[in-house]
Amino acid sequence: MILNDMEKYNLLVVDDEIEILKSIKRQFRKKYNVFTAENAIDALQVMANESIQVVISDQRMPAMSGTEFLNIVKEKFPEALKLIITGYSDIEAVIGAINEGQIFRYITKPWNPIELESILSEAFEKYELITNNKKLTKSLQISNSELEEKVKLRTAELQELNSKLKGLNLEKNKYVGIVAHDLRNPIGVAKGFAELLIDEYDDIQRVDKLDYISTIKERCAFALNLITDILDLSKIEAGIFELQKQEQDYISFVQDNIQQNILLAKRKSQMLELKSDLKSCSARFDSSKMEQVLNNLIGNAMKYSVADSKIIIDVTTENGKIVTRVIDEGQGIPVDELDAIFASYTTSSVKGTRGEKSTGLGLAIVKKIINAHEGSISVDSTVGKGSVFTFSFPL
């Protein structure tokens, strides 16, 4: 118990002589809150009702001696400092009680008021030291306990992070292996045809030369697309992916994108068509990133669709969002592959109708771009009938 300047310590004086009680109360009433009792029973009742820091008891009292009374105090109120007033005839019993830890000090009769004041002051200082020490000890125990708990939590967090890092490292190694394999193949093919052209250039027919050069160009384009996709994905996952949103007409934007892909569609005798009841639709989006989304989805639709098929880009508004569906009549995607279709380095078992290759990163990038626009993307597909990729973002 630490008192502030406005509070006083509580002192209990126990003596069967009323004059002694009055004398001690008169001497210390300005310095302490002084409680009095004429016998041990009344004194114990006072201690039960009040927080007594120091108790002074006469040794010789009816029914119960001072040492007996203070022994009960020691059991019931162990924090209280105990003093005893005694004559020389009882000094041995009192010293025995001091040695057993029942009593802090004794005061001999007749006492000197100045000496008594010094003894009480020392007793209250001792009480405060003991109390402060207990509080500091308890505070230290709590701090140690909290520290141990924090150490446990941090240790668990570190173990979890280490486990995640190991998993990420394994994932990284797997991806590096995939990328190395996917790059080695087209680069190896291009290198092989280039060497063939150099070594046997005069013996190769012109039509074959053009075919070799076309293959080299195609393989290099695939490798370049893979590197571009890796760099795009790395930027997104590193947090340096920023959108440059502008207010613009989304319908005009989709029409322009379709025009860019019509020539590629004609090469496979496919038809691209915009289907929408909207003449215009204003929205805020990053046109270069959204172009990447549409090019990827339309390109995939063309890649996995046969000749003479139709690819529809359907645009509507629903619940304050622009909804775009890229619908093809292609081979469709097996049901067991749909859950992982937007994961990095994931390719479908379905092959391009003209042997086109996939980097396995396009749809992962598309999903991240759409998410960055606070939108969502999903796919429905039926093998042999085609796929519908649907993405939406707020108007």
UniProtKB/TrEMBL annotation:
Pfam (any one): Response_reg
Signal sequence residues: none
Coiled-coil features, chain-numbered ranges: 144-171
InterPro entries in alphabetical order: CheY-like_superfamily, HATPase_C_sf, HATPase_dom, His_kinase_dom, HisK_dim/P_dom, HisK_dim/P_sf, Sig_transdc_His_kin-like_C, Sig_transdc_resp-reg_receiver
Class of this enzyme: transferase
Residue ranges of the TM segments: none
CDD domains for the chain: HATPase, HisKA, REC_HupR-like
Swiss-Prot/TrEMBL keywords: Coiled coil, Kinase, Phosphoprotein, Transferase
Span of domain Histidine kinase: 178-395
EC number: 2.7.13.3
Reactions listed under catalytic activity: ATP + protein L-histidine = ADP + protein N-phospho-L-histidine
Ranges of residues in domain Response regulatory: 10-124
Residues modified as 4-aspartylphosphate: 58
GO molecular function, one term: kinase activity
Protein name: histidine kinase
Organism: Paralabilibaculum antarcticum
